[in-house]
Amino acid sequence: MSPRLDLLQPYPFQKLRELFAGLVPNPALPHVNLSIGEPKHPAPQLVKDALIANLDGLSAYPATAGSDTLRGAIAAWIGRRYNIPTPDAAREVVPVNGSREALFAFAQAVIDPTVPHTPVVLSPNPFYQIYEGAALLAGAEPYYVNCLAENRFQPDWDAVPEAVWARTQLVYVCSPGNPTGAVASLEDWQKLFALSDRYGFVIASDECYSEIYEGQPPLGGLEASVKLGRGLRNVVMFSSLSKRSNVPGLRSGFVAGDADVLAKFLLYRTYHGCAMSPTVQAASALAWGDEAHVEDNRRQYAAKFEAVTPLLAQVLDVSQPDAAFYLWARTPIDDTEFARRLYAEQHVTVLPGSYLARAAHGVNPGSGYVRIALVAPLADCVEAARRIARFCQSL
């Protein structure tokens, strides 16, 4: 077996199960799980109908590159959503089975292990754990760039030494961020693009939360690159229907951006064998073409934030994020102890922030925080917030 597998850390939810081992929560209180970022709103009827109407697609092998119809729908959505020239559907769009598998696979295609030094993959910290595993299994060294409150929860690119940049081949960006919900500004992107142009690394922009927002739509990586007049050079975005359309079980997303990079990625995927089912492709094309269900989705999350945030702000240092469906709350005690006692005493599950980060540069930037995912129904989220408030008042 590959010795690189031994480098992988337990996934956060495995750590959470171990943290809760032996606990018997208050049996008088029904469980409210706000730990996992799994959308719970109903899947759109148009997606369900399209799956049923296209079941004949199960009788055919799918093309790795996806259908012209799906790539065209994705390209058109990108153009509309970000107000940029519509990408070339044949060269600048690749459908994938959800952003998670693509974020992992991308590192395997991008990293060049033949260089005389160990390649580096930069990751925000805290981060989506796939970034780390992808880097390690590609034979690269992860380098964690802390995202602290004093820096608007944005990666501090200025803190990365020049010697690290010189070895960097891939940088993961997550905007809106998981777990903080912070959105990168045009100035943030400009700084990173300048570094990419200098050192030649590829930027993987994880934007799967881009459609969960209030007010102004979050700026995207491709959008920023076009606005700054540099085209799509060395930048690709990853997006998904999971959060946007409440279909995490559909496993449908895309990668779009630099055509030269995507040509190599598509070659890799041809051998990887992860083409999307024609049935799923047909339903996905319809989902990317419809915004009504997305707007309704945003309204539901907005109602949760409006109801929950004031309740929690009375007892915790927390505020509504720029985007996404998480609250990133500072805890009055150790974050793991907070999560453990909250589960035992109030039967509410949240995720310790330290489980989403690594100790780097003298600090674990997730320590002292918990991630609260507002995915449960509104009434359950409000009930959980009231229990969290009671718990905090008892500390």
- Count, helices: 14
Beta percentage is 5-15%
Largest sheet: 7 strands, mixed
Number of E-type strands: 12
Strand order of the largest sheet: 2-8-7-6-5-3-4
Q: How far is it from the N-terminal to the C-terminal residue, by CA?
A: 47 Å
The topology string of helices and strands comes to HEHHEHEHEHEHEHEHEHHHEHEEEH
Helix content: 40-55%
Mind telling me the C-alpha Rg? 21 Å
Q: Give start-end ranges of low-pLDDT stretches.
A: none
> What is the overall pLDDT average?
97
**Shape from CA axes?**
globular
Defining key terms:
395 residues; alpha/beta; 7-stranded mixed beta sheet; 3-stranded antiparallel beta sheet; 41% helix
Structural account:
By secondary structure, this protein is of the alpha/beta class. It contains 14 helices and twelve strands. The strands form three sheets. Strands 2-8-7-6-5-3-4 form a seven-stranded mixed sheet, sandwiched between helices. The chain has a three-stranded antiparallel sheet with strand order 9-12-11. It has a two-stranded parallel ribbon with strand order 1-10. Strand 5, helix 7 (186-199) and strand 6 form a beta-alpha-beta unit. The model has no long low-confidence stretch (mean pLDDT 97). InterPro entries: Aminotransferase_I/II_large (IPR004839), DapC_beta/gammaproteobac (IPR019878), LL-DAP_aminotransferase (IPR050881), PyrdxlP-dep_Trfase (IPR015424), PyrdxlP-dep_Trfase_major (IPR015421), PyrdxlP-dep_Trfase_small (IPR015422).
